[in-house]
Amino acid sequence: MEIRQGRGEMAKIINVGAEATIIMTKWYEISAISKQRKSKKYRRKEIDDFIRSSRTLKEVNIMNKIRDKLDIPAIYFVDPKRAEIIMENVIGVKVKDSLNTQETDKRQIGKEIGKIVGCLHQNNIIHGDLTTSNMIIRDNQSICLIDFGLSLTSKKLEDKGVDIRLFKGILQSAHNDVSNIVFSNFKKGYKTIMKNQTEEIFSIVKKIEMRGRYARVD
């Protein structure tokens, strides 16, 4: 579906989520992505505007906090009033698709993702949506982490454990045949960054599973 944005250019809706609409557009002739948080009709307009604006700024602030340490999309423009972020259209292959090919080095991908998540957690950032669809392998093999819409800052090891358990659950549901290889190497990569905290955090992951929040698969 194509739409015309306020700046006059044609744009194409590529995803409509519960919180935001993702639109492929252009920013000064550069291919770009526009993320626009959707208005919720059940909220009063003043409250809705405040929530969408504050969540947009929070997302941008977290991305800016980590961008000098990780590969994340460049931000071109932020409009808090429209709850819109215009950012780089990252070109590459989603990790989700890459893990489904025989040629992929699953061990290396797992290790690199572990380093990425370790870097986030070292800086007390919880991504909140660590799916293989939110990781894109560029042509230079760098893995770009996208979609910080659910991210938050937290020093709690429990929150870091939940972040990792989400990723483990995604591997088991979407990539079950390679999940053990990827996750065991994820831990190795994570440990290179988080070092002595690794075992404590992974023990929390096991406790989360045992509490029954998720189906446990050994």
Question: Any chance you could write out the topology, listing elements then pairs?
Answer:
Layout: E1 2-4, E2 10-16, E3 20-27, E4 30-37, H1 45-66, E5 75-79, E6 84-88, E7 93-94, H2 95-98, H3 106-122, E8 125-126, E9 135-137, E10 143-145, E11 152-153, H4 157-174, H5 179-194, H6 198-210
Antiparallel strand pairs: 1-2, 2-3, 3-4, 4-6, 5-6, 7-9, 8-11, 9-10
Distance between the termini: 43 Å
Order of helices and strands: EEEEHEEEHHEEEEHHH
Share in β-strands? 15-25%
- The residue-averaged pLDDT reads 92
Helical content class: 40-55%
Neighbour order of strands in the largest sheet: 1-2-3-4-6-5
Radius of gyration of CA atoms, rounded to a whole number: 18 Å
Instruction: Work out the helix count.
Output: 6
Q: Any idea what the shape is?
A: globular
Describe the structure.
The protein is of the alpha+beta class and 218 residues long. It has six helices and eleven strands. Helix 3 packs parallel to helix 5 and helix 4 packs across helix 6. Helix content is 41%, strand content 22%. Strands 1-2-3-4-6-5 form a six-stranded antiparallel sheet, with helices on one face. Strands 7-9-10 form a three-stranded antiparallel sheet. It has a two-stranded antiparallel ribbon with strand order 8-11.
How would you briefly describe this protein structure?
This protein has 218 residues and is α+β, with helices and mostly antiparallel strands.
Keywords:
218 residues; alpha+beta; six-stranded antiparallel sheet; three-stranded antiparallel sheet; 11 strands; globular
